[in-house]
Each structure stands twice: as C-alpha cells, then as structure tokens.
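$ run holo --ligand "dihydroflavine-adenine dinucleotide" --emit tokens
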Amino acid sequence: MSLFNYTVSKTIMHVPKPIVSHFAKGYIAGPTLADAVQVTRDLNQQGMMTTIDILGEFITGFDQAVSFKNDALTILQTIEREKLDANLSIKPTQMGLLLDKEKCFGLIHEIVSEAVKFDNFVRIDMEDIETTDDTLEFFRKLREEFSGHVGTVLQSYLRRTPFDISDLNDGVQNYRLCKGIYVEPRTHAWKNPHAINRNFTECLKRLFDQGAYVGIATHDELLIFEAMNLIHKLGLQPDQYEFQMLLGVDEEMRGIILKNGHRLRIYVPFGEDWLPYSKRRLKENPTIAQHALKQILGINKH
Ligand code: FDA
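-- output --
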C-alpha cells in the first residue's frame, strides 16, 4: 500500500466532506428514490437485478427508525408499481436495533410482511459484531413466518461464521456472503486477507452443501473465479445463487459474470445520508480518493 493510501485509510474519518462527496457520486444512485428507480431501470435493461438500500444507520431517536421503516415500505411499493427487478436491503440499526430491540423487530416484521404482499424479498444487512447475534435471531424468527421472502448476510472475516452456518442449518437458508466491512477486533475477526478469502470459499462450499441460496457478494477476482468453479463442479442452476456487486465498482467484471451465464444483482444505495457509507467505500479503496484529490487539485491536468 502506498504512503498516500495508507494515510487515507488511517485518517479517512477526517477527510473533508467535499472530497468524499466528489468521489462518492459513482457509488450512490443520488439523493432520492427516483434516482434509485432510474439506476435500477438502466441496470435491469442491461440484464442485472438490483437491491435498493436507503442510506442511514446508527440513529439517535426511534422516530427516525419509524421514518426509515415508512421509506422501506415506499421502496417496496415503488418497485411493484414500476415493475422493477429489484428487492430491498435494510440495516437493523437504521430500524432502531440499538435503541429498542423488540420495537426494532416489529418494524422489520412490518417491512417483510409488505414484501410478502408483492412476492418480493428483504435482505437484512449485517453490521458490526455488536449486532450479529440479534440480526441472526431476527432472521431465524422471520424465516419461520415468511419463508423465501427474507435473508441475511454472513461475513467471512468473522471467526464465528462457519459455526453460524452449521447452527442455521435447520430452516430455509438465504444468505449474502461477503468479506465484511466493519473494523472488528482480532479476537472476533481474521485480519490476514488470505484467511478471510479461504474462509469465504470454505463458507460458500458449506452453504451450497447445505442447499442454501447464496448471493456471492465480492469484487475479488480470485473469489469470483473460485465461486464459478464451485458452481460448475456442483452443477448448480442459475436460479440457485446470484453474484452481487456494489454500484460503481468494476463494471468490466459485471460483463464477465453476465457473459458466463450467471445472474448478477447490484447494490444500489440512495439518500441524503451518504457520508458514512461513502467513507467505508473510500477506506476500502483509497486509490479512488487519490484520483479524486488529484482532480480537485488539478494535478495531472495538462
Ligand atoms: P476486496 O476489498 O479485496 O476488493 C477486491 C477488488 O475489488 C479490489 O482490488 C478493487 O479492485 C475492487 N473494489 C473493492 N471495493 C471497491 C470500492 N469500494 N471501490 C472500487 N473498487 C473496489 N459488508 C458487510 O459487512 N455487511 C453487509 O451487509 C455488506 N453488504 C454488501 C453487499 C454487496 C452487494 C457487496 C458487494 C458488498 C457488501 N459488503 C457488506 C461489503 C463487503 O463486506 C466488502 O467489504 C466489499 O465487498 C469489498 O470486498 P471484496 O470482496 O470486493 O474484496
């Protein structure tokens, strides 16, 4: 990692808002649901599905959670009305998990009930380690009632994930598998990138063995290669899994996945509250900040 990239990843929380805003544009559909609808329509036309996410997390009052729940219902209704090939992703802390667990479950229950009306699907994103047990507990309860309409996320950086996969093998299984984006202590998370990758492939194998539907969420070429090999070896059909990527990342790889006959879903975030999401993306890939900074400073312009 270059000195610039190292510095960005260590100091990202202090990068001025205008710089983050400059690079964030590609990662976010825009401030409104209409923006997410437009981006989804474009991606649908190119043969991709989406999952729509309204930005905002770690709220301070339960009225904000209720407001996000109402937004989530509107997204589901809009997907239905506009006939989009899209589903919904939500974050438990956005629905008040850290304020009132029972009330939070009530809101998520209402959202999944709405998705069932439209034969749609809700993915409960996974956040930091403080929320893992509660998120898996919510998923367990909801899949009992709304089988096939709800799923959650497993993170391959967590040491616990292989055990969670075994524990969850007593009901309908639908997961997004990703590396994990939060900064967790080494006591909970693998830090070595090779260990995270090997755990990813191991977990994917176990999930397929258990008959799970998996959203394979990565841009890592090696992991995509290994997933494709596994799919081929097991003779899986395209409706037994999907690949997933973030909006704004590696469009060339999108084409490769589609051309190989796999289904691909793009994560489409929208909303005013773009700063924390964008900072996580920037921390993930400081090279982007380098490009943005050079543009802003007029470096490389001749
Ligand atoms: P890695 O970070 O090694 O990236 C591989 C390559 O992809 C990089 O070399 C770079 O070229 C490119 N790349 C990756 N990120 C980029 C970026 N931001 N900008 C430009 N290029 C980039 N995490 C979580 O904890 N909970 C969750 O619910 C989710 N949900 C989720 C949904 C979807 C659809 C995706 C794709 C990812 C998530 N994540 C997530 C994030 C995930 O955990 C992980 O942090 C990122 O996907 C980056 O990891 P990769 O597997 O892409 O590998």
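-- notes --
The longest helix spans residues 62-81.
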